[in-house]
Amino acid sequence: MAEDRFKKAEFGAWIGIVGNIALALMKGLIGYASSSKALMADALHSASDVAGSVAVLIGIRASKLPPDTDHPYGHGKAEPIASIVVSVLLLVVGIEIGVSSVKAIHHGVDAPPGKIAFIAIFISIIVKEAMFRYKYRLGRKLSSQALIANAWEHRSDVYSSIAAFVGVGGAMLGNYLGNTYLYYLDPIAGLFVSVLVLKMGYRLVMESIHSTMDHVLHEEDAAELLETVQRIKGVIAVDDLRAREHGHYVIVDIKISVNPKISVQEGHDIAKIVKQTLMKRFIHVSDVFIHVNPYDPGYPYKHGETEADDYPTLLH
């Protein structure tokens, strides 16, 4: 199951790398040939997506490594760290696009972009939206924060391409109407793209930082885990359950109460069943740490009046 997950995640990352290289080259060459600042900015955005997809691929491969002495809980946080790299790249590119557009507006625009720029942007919008939908669904399916972050990069590129589409189209309309002021719509669109990129980059940075920390699942998110443990034969009560996110997977810390009259071996066997059940039923649970307590009838977990002999054991 885990191996299949990594193969699908790697394939998704490679789709992003190949697609973005093709789009960056197409938009860069056509943008340069047609003198479109908006299309050049859009090409730069796609080029940043290439670096982002490479960072995601590195993070996915690192998270695949097994636990070792220095990383006893595995390398799952490599993916959210990779998504931080992606987010920072977005911020840097957003600033670059903004500076370039302001310079173009300041120095003036003498002519509108060529018609081919309009066609290139239209193709870019279709391709980037398709890549977003594919990667976002794959990221949600595989619980990969890095893939989801990279998918949102594609969506931000769709927005930037739409802005470039309006800018280039407006500038071409200005040429048709003989209004040179409309030529400025092209660099203005580039400036608008930079704002979109910066906004998206900031949001992803904050989400990625949140994911790298030991975040405990909310009560409603851990409810299914709790209900599963409570149904296991031999478990009288669940004293405490904490599920914390560790990259794309979850580590569960749990305290259970069992019949105080059973043997240590029986208590150990119950704990083993709890661990196996959780890891088999929930594929995102990578490890379970269990503390076994003797059930205290004076503490109101279930039935305070139950006699000790009535406690369930592993055997009945």
Automatic annotation (TrEMBL):
- Gene3D superfamilies, from UniProt? Cation efflux protein transmembrane domain, Cation efflux protein, cytoplasmic domain
Bilayer topology reads: Multi-pass membrane protein
Which compartments is it annotated to reside in? Membrane
Question: Cation efflux protein transmembrane domain location, by residue?
Answer: 14-210
Question: InterPro entries annotated for this entry?
Answer: Cation_efflux, Cation_efflux_CTD, Cation_efflux_CTD_sf, Cation_efflux_TM, Cation_efflux_TMD_sf, CDF_Transporter
Ranges where the Cation efflux protein cytoplasmic domain occurs:
218-295
Q: Please give the superkingdom of this protein's source.
A: Bacteria
Q: Which GO terms describe its molecular function?
A: monoatomic cation transmembrane transporter activity
Residue spans crossing the bilayer: 12-33, 81-104, 116-136, 183-202
Secretion signal, residue range per the UniProt entry: none
Keyword Protease set for record: no
Alphabetical UniProt keywords:
Membrane, Transmembrane, Transmembrane helix, Transport
GO cellular component terms given for this protein: membrane
Q: Which family does it belong to?
A: Belongs to the cation diffusion facilitator (CDF) transporter (TC 2.A.4) family.
The protein's name is Cation transporter
- According to its UniProt entry, this protein's organism is Paenibacillus cremeus
